[in-house]
Design a protein that fits this description.
Helix content: 40-55%
Order of helices and strands: EEHHHHEEHEHHEHEEEHEHEHEEEH
Largest sheet: 5 strands, mixed
Shape: rod-shaped
Structural class: alpha/beta
Distance between the termini: 81 Å
Number of strands: 14
Strand content: 15-25%
């Protein structure tokens, strides 16, 4: 069966039907006259007549019965059939317009956020709770990765809207908001001689200790430079990209770890967190976005929720480490 007729391609003509044509038909049916439809739509009467004529030409049939004299205009059977679909189309059009406005305002939609392991554990739950109160119609789709370089690549590709990362940023179209300085601490097995120190650990305490190292963590280079500058001899006993694996190996006496505080479960019964004297500089965790794309209102709301929570985390970390330096129990 072909859609082609002597008047041309039927499908092409239907594709030329515009919303204004359907609005004119609906207004005529509702008001019963061209004048009433024009007043309701804010048009001149001739414009409504032209829109209806265009619609009839495009659909290939009469839609209004013009033989009723001075009485209200009535729809033909074809007009009634088209009106039933028109009302649904206009309702969907209006709903789409409303939803697009809400999406542009950051009140609905999905926010795609990249996460580091430590952020997912210690920061995200509180941020999500606060964000949900402010942006009830927006869902957060998290993507977790061991390496922030992979997350930043996804951000540049457009598959993420925001991502947590470490500073400094690599080359690329990125901007970032610094959130928290995460200090490097020494993690040792409970019961080991280092676990009973009543002072911060020194490079001499770490010398010749087997090291459980992190893979995929950019700040690992900070640790390596610090060890080299301190002339600390060490061997890497094991490398892992999973925080829990590193801490588990430490707990079983396989070595010690120099880890960001947020990567450590400070309540682990088989490990002890020891602050460092003049240790490596902290890693700085930030929230990054792509400067080529304007952050959405939802992204702004997420960042606004993250900042005070990270400030609270930083204050809590400082308090815990100060107690450890003073030899006070946690």
């Amino acid at each position: 069966m072909s859609l082609r007729t002597g008047d041309g391609n039927v499908r092409d003509r239907w594709m030329s039907v515009e919303i204004r044509h359907l609005e004119a038909l609906a207004a005529i049916a509702r008001e019963g006259s061209f004048r009433g439809a024009a007043d309701a739509l804010g048009y001149v009467q001739s414009a409504v007549s032209q829109q209806l004529a265009s619609l009839e030409r495009l659909v290939g049939t009469r839609l209004i019965d013009r033989r009723r004299g001075n009485g209200p205009l009535a729809l033909t059977d074809a007009g009634s059939l088209l009106l039933a679909h028109t009302e649904e189309i206009l309702a969907r059009y209006e709903q789409t317009s409303v939803e697009l406005s809400l999406l542009a305002a950051g009140r609905i939609g999905t926010l795609r956020v990249g996460l580091l392991q430590s952020v997912a554990t210690h920061v995200l739950p509180q941020v999500l709770a606060t964000f949900a109160q402010r942006s009830t119609g927006v869902s957060v789709a998290p993507t977790e990765h061991m390496a922030d370089t992979a997350l930043l690549a996804m951000l540049q590709e457009g598959t993420l809207d925001l991502t947590f990362c470490e500073l400094p940023l690599p080359d690329g179209p990125f901007e970032a908001m610094s959130l928290i300085d995460d200090p490097i601490v020494l993690v040792v097995a409970a019961g080991s001689p280092l676990s009973t120190l009543e002072r911060p650990a020194t490079p001499a305490d770490i010398a010749e200790q087997p090291l459980i190292a992190f893979s995929g963590w950019r700040a690992q280079s900070l640790v390596q430079r610090w060890l080299a500058n301190q002339s600390v001899e060490h061997t890497v006993a094991f490398t892992s990209g999973h925080n829990a694996t590193v801490q588990g190996l430490v707990a079983h006496g396989m070595g010690v770890a120099l880890a960001p505080y947020l990567a450590v479960d400070a309540s682990h019964p088989d490990t002890v967190v020891v602050p460092l004297a003049d240790g490596p500089p902290p890693r700085t965790i930030a929230l990054a976005w792509c400067r080529d794309r304007e952050p959405s209102p939802a992204a702004d709301a997420f960042a606004a929720a993250a900042r005070p929570i990270c400030e609270q985390q930083a204050a809590g970390i400082a308090w815990e480490l100060e107690r450890s330096r003073a030899g006070l129990p946690a």
